[in-house]
Specification:
rod-shaped, single chain, Rossmann fold, Spo0b-associated Gtp-binding Protein, Chain: A, alpha/beta, five-stranded mixed β-sheet
Length: about 350
């Protein structure tokens, strides 16, 4: 399935039905009073969070989402029926914005959470509401009001406890496959990951924990210099770590490129700060991946000292052999539970 994380849709709520101007027509009643019923309320457009959806693909080619109008009022005091709301299911984590003003209308952060995006119009009053002692046969009635109409921008941001960061091809997909049941595409070339992948880490598989204790890791496409301005896959995917509570930053040696782990680390941190200063201040764990490669293992002590000079603890891990992963899982759990004092340098 294609992954779509942004689209624009026009939403049109239903207008209210018109009130009715009518009079009683009964045998032996010479002057029947007004009996015009009210119009029904127009239906609203309501977005609903759905944890079973992971893409906005269903709405990408939808031009208009339209809710029905309310029925007009009728004689004999008969009120028009209100329109039934139109419900649109979207992935949990969707932000709804006014496409013209960029004002956030709301966010859907839980399954079955509802957000009224466009409200239906009110039904108009029938003529019986306008009867007075001096005008007992009013022909006045109210038309229904129009429903709200606007263009909305939908932005999907994945919900994860841990966001994986790093240059392309540093082993993020291999890591998420090692710690969870997610099966992202893995290959030895840049930008293997083209869409965010979510993996659920079962803590009792790694550390002493109760069955059912989990956290969610998001693997996003690799970042490169200029990502905050749209280079590579750019801000399209930077936003997917926006809701992460802690960052896991992977670095590694790249033997085909003129790159160095500390330089790569600085480049990614720079893009984070340019994109969102608050995001750059989130708790972070840094790990040197691919420890099963001899050259990486040999370089670790020197790199560990270089990172330590900046007060950064550098873990050594191998997703292929599972080496060093348990301490990283333990530290991630401690940060997520607020027990950051358990680990020192």
């Amino acid at each position: 399935m294609r992954f779509v994380d942004e689209c624009v849709v026009r939403v049109e709520a239903g207008g209210g039905g018109d009130g009715c101007a009518s009079f009683r027509r009964e045998a032996f009643v010479q002057f029947g009073g007004p009996s015009g019923g009210d119009g029904g309320a127009g239906a609203s457009v309501v977005f609903v969070g759905d944890e079973g959806k992971n893409s906005l693909l269903d709405l990408q080619h939808t031009r208009v989402v339209r809710a029905p109008k309310g029925e007009n009022g009728r004689g004999s005091d008969m009120y028009g029926r209100g329109g039934e709301n139109t419900f649109v299911r979207v992935p949990v984590g969707t932000i709804v914005k006014n496409a013209e003003t960029e004002e956030v209308i709301g966010e859907l952060l839980a399954h079955d959470e509802q957000l009224i995006v466009a409200r239906g119009g009110l039904g108009g009053r029938g003529n019986k509401h306008f009867s007075t002692p001096t005008d007992r046969a009013p022909r006045k009635f109210e038309p229904g009001t129009a429903g709200e109409v606007l263009d909305v921008r939908l932005e999907l941001r994945v919900l994860a406890d841990v966001g994986l960061l790093g240059f392309p091809n540093v082993g993020k997909s291999t890591f998420i496959a090692a710690v969870s049941r997610a099966r992202p595409k893995i290959a030895d070339y840049p930008f293997t990951t083209l869409v965010p992948q979510l993996g659920v880490v079962k803590l009792d598989d790694w550390v002493g924990a109760s069955p059912g204790d989990t956290f969610v890791v998001a693997d996003i496409p690799g970042l490169i210099p200029g990502a905050s301005e749209g280079a590579g896959l750019g801000i399209r995917f930077l936003k997917h770590v926006d809701r992460s509570r802690v960052l896991l930053h992977l670095v590694s040696l790249d033997f085909d490129e003129d790159r160095e782990p500390l330089t790569d680390y600085d480049a990614v941190r720079r893009e984070l700060a340019l994109f969102d200063q608050e995001l750059a201040r989130r708790p972070e764990i840094v790990a040197l991946s691919k420890a099963d490669i001899t050259e990486v293992r040999e370089a670790y002590e020197e790199l560990k000292a270089a990172f330590a000079a900046r007060n950064i603890k550098l873990h050594l891990i191998s997703s292929a052999t599972r080496e060093g992963i348990k301490p990283v899982i333990e530290e991630l759990r401690a940060i997520l539970s607020g027990r950051t004092d358990e680990f020192g340098d």
